[in-house]
Design brief:
The protein is of the alpha+beta class and 158 residues long. The protein is built from 4 helices and 7 strands; from the N terminus they run βααβββαβαββ. The strands form 2 sheets. The chain has a 4-stranded antiparallel sheet with strand order 1-2-3-4, sandwiched between helices.
């Protein structure tokens, strides 16, 4: 298993966008595969948000995730988000999600961010709790979870 930044393999953006479109974005009537691909490519960064990261097993794309900065009125003070953790069914059960989450946590430390938030369904809560996330809110059946790492870091993204 090897985790890389999308910046190092931007040719993977289309496949990631297809995953994201099929899993989530198809529910948005305004989303297209092209618009999702454009958003994924925004994460082709090394040192600033958004950052998209990918997992390869034997040179085959086997998972992805994103770190994003968002100012959402419904979540004041929750700036840094883990999003898009996705592993295709053929690669599930191999610990890929865990590796992607741990990579995201290490990137939060590297970027000197205060912590990380995510939004997930109830069946994913135990996965994130095992990775030191705690539930801070439940809204519309979704769990908002937090991982605090550096409480001295600035709250807004630099």
């Amino acid at each position: 298993m090897k985790i890389s930044l999308l910046a190092d393999c931007p040719n993977e953006a289309k496949d990631i966008a297809e995953w994201y479109f099929q899993e989530w974005a198809h529910k948005d009537p305004q989303a297209t595969l092209e618009s999702v691909t454009e958003k994924v490519l925004l994460g082709a960064n090394r040192t600033e948000l958004p950052v998209t990261f990918v997992m390869h097993i034997n040179n085959e794309l086997s998972g992805a995730g994103e770190l994003k900065y968002r100012e959402l009125p419904e979540y004041p003070g929750y700036y840094y988000w883990l999003d898009g953790i996705y592993v295709p069914s053929i690669h599930r059960g191999k610990g890929i999600s865990t590796e992607l989450i741990e990579f995201a946590k290490s990137k939060v430390i590297e970027l000197n961010l205060s912590g990380l938030y995510l939004r997930c369904d109830s069946h994913k809560v135990k996965l994130y709790e095992a990775r030191d996330f705690q539930t801070v809110r439940i809204e519309e059946g979704k769990f908002i979870m937090e991982y605090l790492v550096n409480t001295d870091a600035p709250q807004g993204y630099q």
